[in-house]
Design a protein that fits this description.
Aspartate Aminotransferase, domain 2, 13 strands, Aspartate Aminotransferase, domain 1, alpha/beta, binds pyridoxal-5'-phosphate, three-stranded antiparallel beta sheet
Length: 419
């Protein structure tokens, strides 16, 4: 323990020490290991030869199919275009409405706009910060086609309630699990509640290849449509890959494109790294959960720091450790808390994203569409408006537990001084 608070160690601090002592494993791990390097070398040694094409893409997709015990996985170059593909494959079209949470990173809304559909913003639960089914219900119109739910900060939304809405109104559900690799809802791995589930391998995520995404589904027809959409609309693409023989492809009268498609395919270099990360997923996810527990020991008895609630049966995998600063003057206090935390040696933390509909860019885009613009009344989603400016997102990407432990101590010191 390099960073000591005072002689009389507080209860929370003692708990951290006990917790770490019980974890008599090595405190340090590597985010990128020799396995990732080995797989990258294999790609380079193959010199991207087309005869060996897509070895790592196929292996990565297969690893997802096994992990999620699901029919199909389609690799993409990020976790935004995955959602565009999902919407297109489901036949959600121009002008159709898709319900998205007001509080999340902008990608779900962007994907809806990329698909020429209309994003409709629903409010969140103020405890879990995830999509609230009652608010979703109020957003439904005859044009609503789908709900794009987000497992925010690593916590799944209430799928039972969302699926009830879907069944009642004949809507599709797409799960955005970019922040939630291997979280659970009522004992079940998230990823198979919706028609599609989307994952991201961007740098801050549980598993990373720098950039990258994955779409999974149990429906063969949807998988085929998705693969064609993200694969330039090529002829011969099936749910599991290409079936065409080279001989057919090489003919002068071969019809290559059978539908309008985008090139959203993942590169072999990314697939190589992502495969190694999937093979190491348990240790990578466990590390983030361990870091979150350290912060939780400090926060759980503090009356002005309120962590994201974790209802019974939900398993949060803590993309970040999210908590709300609940004081009388939270907005100014947020700056004061941050300044104090930084002064004490804390790592800089992010606020939550502005609510998507409050971003000037999105307002300008939707101004051109009177139907969307109508919804942009002030205080459209009051719970999200309350929560967003008060949120603190502590990073959980510490691969050396000693560093995380030091941050937990700084958090404790800051919370004492702040009071
Ligand atoms: C909730 C959420 N959805 C989607 C994305 C988009 O993923 P990508 O950056 O891979 O496009 C991210 C993060 O980047 C995210 O946090």
């Amino acid at each position: 323990m390099k960073y000591l608070l005072d002689k009389n160690l507080c209860v929370a601090y003692k708990k951290i020490v006990l917790f770490l002592q019980k974890k008599d494993k090595s405190c340090k791990m590597k985010r990128i290991t020799s396995l990732e390097h080995q797989y990258i070398s294999e790609v380079l040694d193959n010199e991207f030869r087309t005869s060996k094409k897509s070895i790592f893409n196929q292996r990565l997709e297969h690893a997802f199919v096994e992990k999620f015990n699901i029919g199909y996985a389609i690799a993409h170059n990020n976790g935004t275009c995955t959602m565009h593909t999902a919407l297109a494959a489901l036949g959600v079209g121009a002008g159709d409405e898709v319900i998205v949470p007001a509080l999340t990173m902008g990608s779900p809304t962007l994907a809806v706009l990329h698909n020429n559909s209309v994003p409709v913003f629903a409010d969140i639960s103020p405890d879990t910060f995830t999509l609230d089914a009652a608010s979703v219900r109020r957003c439904i119109t005859p044009r609503t086609k789908a709900i794009l739910s987000v497992s925010l900060y690593g916590l799944p939304p209430d799928y039972d309630a969302l699926l009830d809405v879907c069944h009642e109104h004949n809507l599709y559900l797409i799960e955005d699990n970019a922040q939630c690799f291997s979280g659970k809802y009522k004992g079940k791995l998230v990823g198979s509640f919706g028609q599609f589930a989307s994952y991201s391998f961007q740098g801050s995520k549980h598993l990373t290849s720098g950039e990258g995404g994955m779409l999974i589904t149990c429906d063969a027809l949807l998988a085929q449509k998705a693969r064609q959409f993200c694969g330039l609309g090529f002829n011969g693409l099936t749910a599991t890959g290409s079936t065409l023989q080279r001989e057919t492809l090489q003919q002068p009268d071969f019809d290559r494109h059978i539908t309008l498609g985008y090139n959203f395919k993942m590169s072999e270099l990314c697939a190589a790294v992502a495969l190694a990360q999937v093979e190491r997923a348990d240790e990578l996810v466990e590390q983030k959960k361990t870091v979150a527990k350290l912060f939780h020991e400090v926060v759980k008895d503090c009356d002005f720091l309120v962590p994201q609630a974790q209802p019974e049966g939900y398993e949060n995998v803590y993309w970040t450790y999210a908590m709300m600063l609940k004081t009388e003057h939270s907005k100014t206090d947020w700056q004061r808390f941050r300044a104090l935390f930084l002064k004490n040696g804390g790592d800089s933390f992010y606020a939550a994203w502005k609510l998507t509909y409050n971003e000037p860019f999105f307002q300008n885009v939707v101004q051109q569409d009177p139907r969307v613009w109508q919804q942009y009344q002030k205080n459209l989603c009051p719970k999200a408006e309350f929560v967003q400016p008060r949120l603190i997102q502590l990073k959980t990407n510490y691969w050396d537990l000693a560093e995380a432990e030091q941050q937990a101590e700084i958090l404790y010191k800051t919370s004492r001084e702040f009071q």
